[in-house]
Amino acid sequence: MSGHNEHKEFIYLTPMPVRIWHWINALGIVTLCITGIQIRFPEYVNIFGTYKSAIRLHNTAGVTVSISYAVWLCYYLIIKGNLFKLYVPNVYDIKMGIFKQVLYYFYYFFKGGSSPHHATPDDKFNPMQKVAYMGLMLALLPLVILSGILIMNVAPLREWIIVLGGIKLLVSAHFLIACCFFAFLFVHIYLATMGHTPLAHFKPMWDGWEEIEHH
Ligand code: HEM
């Protein structure tokens, strides 16, 4: 135990727009997953009454997630201008950082060690977070949104759909990416509990401020 417990120090890690985006997005994605399960497996699952109401809720959540994604993107690209700095791993991250971070999550964490990465507002994510969040926010989320927009507008956008390989391929791609989001949710929430206390990483996602861990 460190002797610095009496005066706690905090850093402002997560600005308000990111927090608002994150929780709207989380609620939206969870809603999309649950309604999506009914839409994909209607013979086994009926949570929202009729098939039609599941689709209506799925579309509403989809539009909400799409708009909040656009706001998130504009915020990081235009207002903060640090999207790539925060989200793209550097050479060291790829060569060493990821390895160290994986070793920490699988081994040193359980030995009571502390993370090799210390978050600051300019370097918020550890190498594993960068890779996961970059893949998610700059590839999977835009792809699932685009495929969703096409599936929602089959008639007016049919030319585009044909160019992209047809409706079957599109629906399969949409479902496959959705499965990635479903799997991500569990890993994301588990890893989020691996701060120096189980709720340490949840706090900055709620009020912006993270407590600095003393050694
Ligand atoms: C109920 C569901 C969710 C919970 C409880 C949750 C929890 C958290 C927590 C505690 C953090 C801050 C610590 C960390 O970075 O690990 C965080 C950050 C983040 N989460 Fe989630 N999350 C959820 C859903 C999602 C979903 C569905 C996505 C994306 C599709 C997502 C993407 C992110 C991103 C990109 C960050 C970093 C945000 C930033 O500071 O720029 N989360 N989440």
Automatic annotation (TrEMBL):
Keywords recorded for this protein, A-Z? Cell membrane, Electron transport, Heme, Iron, Membrane, Metal-binding, Transmembrane, Transmembrane helix, Transport
Q: What is the membrane topology noted in the UniProt record heading this document?
A: Multi-pass membrane protein
Q: Where are the transmembrane segments?
A: 20-39, 60-79, 91-110, 131-154, 160-193
Q: Which InterPro entries match?
A: Cyt_b561_bac/Ni-Hgenase, Di-haem_cyt_TM, Hydrogenase_cytochrome, Ni-dep_Hydgase_cyt-B
Primary location recorded for the protein, binned into one broad class:
membrane
Which locations, inside or outside the cell, does it occupy? Answer: Cell membrane
Residues covered by the Cytochrome b561 bacterial/Ni-hydrogenase domain: 15-208
**Coiled-coil segments on the chain, per record:** none
Q: Which family does it belong to?
A: Belongs to the HupC/HyaC/HydC family.
Specify the protein name. Answer: Cytochrome b
Q: Which organism is it from?
A: Geotalea uraniireducens
